[in-house]
Amino acid sequence: MPRKICITAVDGQTGFAIAELILQHKNFSRKVDTVVGLALDSESEKAQELQKLGAQIVQHKPGRMREMVRALQSTGCDTICLVPPARRDKYDICVELVEAAKTAQVPNICLISSAGCDYATVEKQPRMREFIEVETLLLQSKGDASTPTGGSPCVIRAGFYAENLLLYGKQEKEESVLPLPIGETHKFAPVALGDVANIAAHVLTGTGKHGFDDRHRGQMMVVTGPMLCAGEELAAAVSKALGASMEFENISHAEAKRVLATQSGIDESEQQYLLEYYSLVREGKVNYISTTAFHDVTGEHPTELTEFFALYQKEMRPKKVAKRNHK
Fold first, then answer.
1. DSSP class of residue 31?
2. Taking residues 232-258, what's their average pLDDT?
C-alpha cells in the first residue's frame, strides 16, 4: 500500500525540504499516495509552493490537539515525520504532536532531532537539551503496547546544517571573513540540509512487515557531513570552492549573538540553538563524523563541503581579496 505521510513544520526549512524531495523525486513519489503538510502558517510561501506540488496543507494550531487528531484521522496518515519547529514553544508543540499521533494511532513516526543533543546540558545548552526530552517521549512509546506508534519509530539526529554558515554572508562577501564562535582548534562536521532530507525521505517511504523498513525501524541515526574541520579548514574549503581567499575569524559569543540578531532573520530560539551548538564545538563535544547511517540508508556519499559551497557562490563570493595574517 502506498504511504500517506504527514510532515510537520513544512513552512520551515527542514520540513519543506523533506516534503519537496518526496513530492518531486520519482524514487519517493511513486511510493506515496498522499503528503500532508502541517504548517504553522498555511499561507506562507513554502506551504503554498508545496500545495502547488500536490501536498495537502493543513493549518497547525498549537493547543488544539483534538483538531490535530481529527486531521490525522481524516487524511488516513499512516506515517508522521515530526520536525520540531524553530519556535520558543518547540517542546510543547512536539509533546502535543507525539500525543496526537498516539491518539490517532499513526503506526510509523520519524523524529528529526539534533546531533550533539546527548552532550548538551540543561545549564549550558537548554535549547539543544529539549531534543533529548522529545526523543525520550517518542521512544517511551516503544514499550507501550496500547499504541501502535511504539512499533515503528526512527530518530534521525541531524548535524549542524551547512546552510547556517550562509547567515554570515555579509561578512563573507564584504570582508572575505567567515566569523564563527567555535574556538581555534576544535572541529565539527557541517551537513547539507539536502542530505538530511534525503535520508528522511528514504526512511519515510521505506516499508517492512512492521511498518518502516526493518533496516530503519528502531534506529537512532546520527547524520553529519563527511568533513571534520576547524575554523581554518572550513575557510580553506570555502576558498577552494569559490576560487577566492576566505579567512576564518574566531569571534566571541557576544559578537556572534549580535550578528545573528541583526542580520540572520531567524527566530530568537533558533539563534539560541545555534549559539548553543557553537558552544558544544568550543567544548570539543562534537569532534566526530557520523556518515555510516547515510551510506547504509541511501547508498550514496554525503555532500562534500566544497560541493556545498560551490552551490552558493553568489551568497558567499568575496568582493575583495582577504589579507592574510602572516605569523
1. T
2. 90
Give the global pTM.
0.93
Instruction: State pLDDT tens for residues 84-127.
Output: 998 889 999 999 999 999 899 899 999 999 999 999 999 999 99
For residue 121, which amino acid is it?
Answer: T
Q: For residue range 127-172, list pLDDT tens digits in order.
A: 999 999 999 988 887 666 666 666 688 999 999 999 999 888 788 7
User: Look-up: residue for cell 557576544?
Assistant: 254
| Separation of alpha carbons 251 and 295, rounded Å | 34
Largest CA distance in the chain: 67
CB 34 within 8 A of CB 52: no
Scan for cell 512536539, then name that residue: 94
Task: Decide: helix, strand or coil at residue 77.
Answer: coil
Q: Look at strands 108-114 and 32-39 and give their pairing.
A: unpaired
As a 3-state breakdown, the chain gives helix, strand, coil percent values, each rounded to 5, of 50, 15, 35
Residues 194, 35, 212, 9, CA torsion sign:
positive
- DSSP character string of 86-154: SSTTHHHHHHHHHHHHHHTT--EEEEEEETTGGG--TTT-HHHHHHHHHHHHHHHGGG-TT-GGGGEEE
Angle, helices 90-103 vs 65-75, to 10°: value is: 50
**How far is C-alpha 24 from the geometric centre of its chain's CA atoms?**
19
User: Which residue, among 13, 35, 11, 8, has the nearest Cα to 98 in the 3D structure?
Assistant: 8
Give the count of alpha carbons within 13 A of 274, CB side only.
27
Contact of 266 with 206, CB cutoff 8 Å: no
- Amino acid occupying residue 287: N
Contact (CB, 8 A) for 183 and 212: no
Distance, in Å, from the CA atom of 299 to the CA atom of 199, rounded to the nearest integer, reads 10
Tracing cell 582577504 back to the chain, one arrives at: 322
Work out the pLDDT band at 317, boundaries 50, 70, 90.
low
